[in-house]
Design brief:
Layout (H helix, E strand, L loop, with lengths): L1 E6 L2 E4 L4 E9 L4 E9 L6 E6 L5 E3 L7 E6 L4 E6 L8 E9 L2 E4 L3 E6 L1
Parallel strand pairs: 2-11
Antiparallel strand pairs: 1-3, 3-8, 4-5, 4-9, 5-6, 7-8, 9-10, 9-11
């Protein structure tokens, strides 16, 4: 069994910053791509950013230049540094990882940006 545990969400004013972390644990042979998705009320879950095992990154256009995804392979952890946050970034953020070829999701962490 594999678990993804997120931390770092919270309430922040517009223009502020937050850093999300997600650590994978359990029966892990290898971890491929990791990433973050988000879902705002009434919206579909959308991809925010992904990072491959060798560090190649991909971002949705709305966060480019503001968010940075990174990972520490030794710690099985992926991070999302979020700067210049906007009210429209408010959502539940979900960690995602491909572990031994299977996709796993975290439980989600709430990010709320006040105007």
């Amino acid at each position: 069994q594999v678990q993804l545990v997120e931390s770092g969400g919270g309430l922040v004013q517009a223009g502020g910053s937050l850093r999300l972390s997600c650590t994978a644990s359990g029966r892990i042979v290898s971890i491929g791509a990791m990433g973050w998705f988000r879902q705002a009320p009434g919206n579909q879950r959308e991809l925010v950013a992904t990072i491959t095992s060798v560090g190649s990154t991909n971002y949705v256009d709305s966060v480019k230049g503001r968010f940075t995804i990174s990972r520490d392979n030794a710690k099985n952890t992926v991070y999302l540094q979020m700067n210049s946050l906007k009210p429209e970034d408010t959502a539940v953020y979900y960690c995602w990882a491909v572990v031994t070829t299977f996709p796993y999701w975290g439980q989600g962490t709430q990010v709320t940006v006040s105007s």
